[in-house]
Specification:
Protein name (chain B): succinate dehydrogenase
Number of strands of chain A: 7
Strand content of chain B: 15-25%
Distance between the termini of chain A: 53 Å
Helix content of chain A: 25-40%
Pfam family, one (chain B): FAD_binding_2
Oligomer: heterodimer
Strand content of chain A: 5-15%
Enzyme class (chain B): oxidoreductase
Number of helices of chain A: 10
Radius of gyration of chain A: 22 Å
Structural class of chain A: alpha+beta
Largest interface: A-B, 72 and 73 residues
Strand order of the largest sheet of chain B: 13-12-17-16-14-15
Largest sheet of chain A: 5 strands, mixed
Number of helices of chain B: 17
EC number (chain B): 1.3.5.1
Organism (chain B): Rhodopirellula halodulae
Chain lengths: ~280, ~675
């Protein structure tokens, strides 16, 4: 990353912030303008904190504070993903000075478009985690008792796995992916919570699982004990909403804040599923 | 279960390392777990830990290390304010914890031969620390998150993410029978009956406004247990890290290696000098560490650096900025190539979040609250060998029967100060170790989750619903803004209760916090809606910060000594002054006498009980179990340390001979 040249820092008195708001699921979204005092070294989180504290819009009218999601503010928890000036990213590492360099008039904040909006900038990303269940992204150990050390792992394998294990399920990759489409269902009036949940899970289970989940499948297939489930993971990736749904747009890898080699994982998964299919055919 | 045939039902509150380890272990032992978390568990604050996790290991063993030494380093590092049995148990479990995490797929860095690589960390002489790049906490958390997801897929766990724990449900005997929690999306309040409840909700850094902690580390869950009758211990011990990047939204850690590699700390001699830092000539710069500590310079120990930076900003008024406290940490005299080679990773953090290249412009840094050593008081049962009795139901139970506290939100393992790379260990250890205790407790009860009377569940929900409704509608006409009160509280706490503590300031702050508490109880909310109302969630958390803040301030006021993270200059023990050997010896004797007398008075855990009628904490003191390792002075950086150590060792040896106990390591190392 190239640092700002201090002499070119823009120091306006106020910043205009345009927020795409939505009061609840299914409600009509609307734009709202806010004006806050500029301070040096602000990021989008501190902008939202100021908006929450002042609780009025640009015209001085009292409005409810904008809802958003955040956690560690160090770009490691994955909470604060949103679309900022048209680009999906973490809002904690979105610096105001830099955003004003691109667009000095205003900062535009929108929720991610691939997930149902809960309120304002908060979206429901449950489907991301459901993707991890689909590919059984875990090591199936016998027990959590003390059974001695695990297998030795070569440094090369550790170095290949470590980047993949930094995936924070933030959702940037799927927001940028043309094959990952929004699924938003509404509960029917006569439908129980359980039935609605089941219908939702069914819809998620058939749709594209997403680059993050494919990469996690490759992570665990490269672990000495994790690979015990390699066949099941490859079956999941061979089925509907698996690898075949990937259109190889390569957007995912371009927006990943952790620079995870997602397309490399997808290519590896492609080879592995092909070999797996051939092997299954011979084993018939 | 004794009464019915339904499986044991446990509510775990908090989905960080401790909560996930507990959930994982409990499901293995056959429990059904309801896991309640403010955030999706994978986003818990444990992800932020960078350094590593400690255990003695095959390599250190061959250099003379063992679990006992890890135990000793921990209690010495904690300035002896630890009950020793839990710490001993943790040290002896540590190698097993690392092995389990390895089996679960944590990508620990490897040696060429494929073993887990280790590095050295503060406070120890051995390479005990296993690490996974610079994201060890993230990797450990993810491994546990994956196992809990696996248990979820098997139907053993139900996650309630974006749910706020509002308080324990207690029956007429005071026993905890479940929890009340609120869905932060629909705002629905619901009761979760249980056989037992585990609270694993981390630290309370947000009491200080901004800290290195995540935004959900408000301490509100611990406070709600405290207000319900669970005692809170050692609140005054808060670890402050010397160098953090003071952001508008939070304080981010800046590794100490920046000073280690030659960074110079300074401020302009003229307060708030408007010039750009590099335009300020040497003569106008105050390299205060180098001037005040000519021997150590910028490499003074961590606690001294913290205090001096604080002093220069708060007491000398020489902060670089007028409305924000900070000093320069300057690396610009070192070549770019060298900086990139040695400090590339950490300098990128500064660049990413400040938009300034520290290779060109000095970094602005300030100490930041980092870790809560105190927490909910938790019981334990000591075993014959001085550790913990495995499976004993009282292990980690709070003063509310059936309510357990683990991880950073309990008060064991860190004493008055934290040993680096031990916090991740304590979280996973307590989560794993207490599984069998909780199961045994539940099995011994004559009534369980399915027998909780509906009337109790209803009244518990109603009490919380009333609080919620009152916040939304009860304070019409008030113009108290919760975010601004939080800012005031944070500024006040940061000023008086972080690094340097003075009794007059603490007493003054207690009065001020009382006022703020009253104001916080009648906040008016900008959002009175019933859908994802973050305003009301925050307002509740803010109100619940006050009981902990009060316990912290009062505990600090009453503790007239310096111990670990708690430092009062008025009660500092002086260095030895005499150069004459006989007189120096006499001074050392007197120093040791005073040290013992001080321990007599203050080597005690502060235990706070909440008095709801006065809205104040009441403090009592608890003897510390030092049965395995007798306390000894921490002498790092003190003039005359050798003479004191000599006297101390003689005394310790004499005592040991008298008692003939021969219980392991006695006296100083």
């Amino acid at each position: 990353m190239i640092a700002l040249d201090p002499s070119t820092k823009k120091r306006p008195e106020f910043i205009n912030v345009r927020v795409r708001r939505q009061d609840a699921p299914g409600k009509q979204p609307y734009w709202e303008l806010h004006k806050i005092k500029y301070e040096p070294e602000m990021n989008v989180i501190s902008v939202l904190q100021r908006i929450a504290a002042q609780a009025t819009n640009r015209d001085g009218k009292k409005v409810t504070p904008v809802a958003w999601d955040c956690g560690c503010l160090e770009e490691v928890c994955g909470s604060c993903t949103m679309v900022i000036n048209g680009r999906v990213r973490q809002s904690c590492s979105a610096l105001v000075d830099r955003l004003l360099e691109d667009n000095s008039d205003e900062i535009v904040l929108e929720p991610m478009s691939k997930f149902p909006v809960v309120r304002d900038l908060v979206v429901d990303r449950e489907r991301l985690f459901q993707g991890l269940k689909r590919v059984k992204a875990w090591v199936p150990v016998d027990s959590y008792f003390n059974m001695g050390p695990g297998e030795r792992i070569l440094r090369d394998d550790q170095e290949r796995n470590y980047p993949l294990s930094q995936c924070m399920s933030c959702g940037c990759c799927v927001e940028a992916c043309p094959q990952y489409n929004k699924i938003e269902l509404t509960q029917k009036s006569d439908e129980s919570d359980e039935a609605f949940e089941a219908r939702k899970q069914e819809a998620y289970a058939e749709a594209f699982v997403g680059p993050h989940a494919i990469s996690q499948a490759m992570l665990f297939n490269n672990h000495p004990t994790g690979k015990a489930l390699a066949g099941e993971r490859l079956d999941a990736l061979s089925g509907p909403g698996g690898l075949a749904a990937c259109g190889n747009a390569q957007n995912c890898v371009a927006v990943c804040p952790k620079e995870i080699p997602l397309t490399t994982s997808i290519a590896r998964a492609g080879r592995a599923t092909t070999l797996h299919a051939i092997k299954k055919w011979f084993d018939k | 279960m004794a009464q019915s045939n339904s499986p044991t039902r446990v509510v775990v509150v908090g989905g960080g390392l401790a909560g996930l380890a507990s959930t994982m272990k409990l499901t293995e032992l056959g429990a059904q777990v309801d896991l309640i978390s403010l955030t999706p568990v994978k986003r818990s604050h444990s992800v932020c830990a960078q350094g590593g996790i400690n255990s003695c290991n095959d390599a250190t063993r061959q250099l003379g290390d063992d679990e006992w030494k890890h135990f000793d380093d921990t209690v010495y590092g904690g300035d002896f304010l630890n009950h020793q049995p839990p710490v001993k148990e943790m040290a002896y479990w540590a190698p097993k914890v690392i092995e389990l995490m390895d089996r679960l797929g944590v990508p620990f860095n490897r040696t060429g031969e494929g073993f887990i690589d280790r590095r050295r960390f503060g406070g120890t002489l051995y390479k005990r620390t296993a690490f996974a790049g610079a994201t060890t906490g993230q990797q450990l958390l993810y491994a546990l998150d994956e196992q809990v997801r696996r248990q979820e897929a098997e139907g053993n766990v139900t996650k309630y993410e974006f749910w706020d724990f509002l308080g324990p449900i207690q029956d007429e005997t005071g026993r905890c029978r479940g929890v009340v929690a609120q869905d932060m999306v629909s705002m629905k309040i619901k009761a979760f009956p249980a056989d037992a409840v585990v609270v694993a909700t981390g630290g309370c850094g947000l009491i200080y406004g901004r800290s290195t902690m995540s935004v959900f580390c408000t301490g509100s869950a611990a406070s709600r247990c405290f207000q319900a009758g669970a005692n809170y211990a050692n609140a005054e011990f808060i670890q402050v890290h010397p160098t953090a990047i003071p952001g508008a939204d939070k304080l981010r850690l800046m590794s100490e290696s920046a000073r280690g590699e030659g960074g110079r700390v300074w401020v302009p001699r003229t307060p708030h000098d408007p010039r750009e830092p590099r335009a300020i000539p040497e003569a106008d710069r105050y390299y205060f560490l180098e001037e005040r500590y000519p021997e150590y310079g910028n490499l003074v120990p961590r606690d001294i650096a913290t205090r001096e930076i604080f002093d220069i900003c708060v007491n000398e008024g020489l902060s670089v900025e007028e409305d924000r406290m900070c000093v320069y940490l300057d690396l610009t005299h070192i070549s770019r190539a060298e900086l990139d080679r040695k400090l590339g990773g950490i300098l990128e953090i500064y660049e990413k979040f400040q938009g300034v290249d520290p290779r060109d412009e000095p970094m602005k840094i300030f100490p930041a609250v980092h870790y809560s050593m105190g927490g909910l008081w938790a019981d334990y049962v000591k075993s014959a060998d001085g550790g913990l009795e495995a499976g004993a139901p009282r292990n980690h139970m709070t003063t509310i029967e059936g309510l357990y506290a683990i991880g950073e939100c309990d008060y064991h393992y860190h004493g008055a100060n934290r040993l680096g790379a031990n916090s991740l260990l304590s979280c996973i250890f307590t989560g794993l170790f207490t599984g069998s205790s909780i199961m045994n407790y539940s099995a011994a009860q004559s009534s369980g989750a399915s027998d909780v009377p509906q009337s109790l569940l209803d009244s518990s929900v109603k009490a919380q619903q009333d609080r919620h409704d009152h916040l939304l509608n009860g304070n019409a006409g008030s113009d108290e803004n919760p975010y601004l009160i939080h800012q005031e509280l944070g500024d006040l706490m940061t000023r008086v209760a972080t690094v340097v503590r003075r009794n007059d300031q603490l007493a003054e702050a207690i009065k001020k916090v009382d006022e703020l508490h009253e104001r916080a109880m009648k906040v008016s909310l900008a959002d009175s809606g019933s859908w994802t109302n973050q305003n009301v969630i925050f307002a509740k958390a803010l109100q619940d910060m006050f009981p902990l803040a009060k316990a912290l301030l009062k505990g600090a006021l009453q503790r007239d000594e310096c111990r670990g993270a708690h430092y009062k200059p008025d009660f500092k023990k002086p260095s030895l002054t005499s150069e004459d050997p006989v007189e120096r010896r006499r001074q050392a004797e007197a120093w040791c006498d005073e040290f013992e007398a001080n321990n007599e008075k203050y080597l005690k855990s502060t235990v706070a009980t909440w008095n709801a009628s006065t809205n104040q904490p009441e403090l009592t003191y608890e003897e510390v179990d030092t049965s395995s390792i007798p306390p000894r002075p921490r002498l790092y950086g003190l003039v005359g340390a050798e003479a004191i150590e000599e006297v101390w060792n003689e005394r310790a040896a004499k005592k040991a001979a008298e008692s003939q106990s021969g219980s392991g390591l006695v006296g100083a190392k």
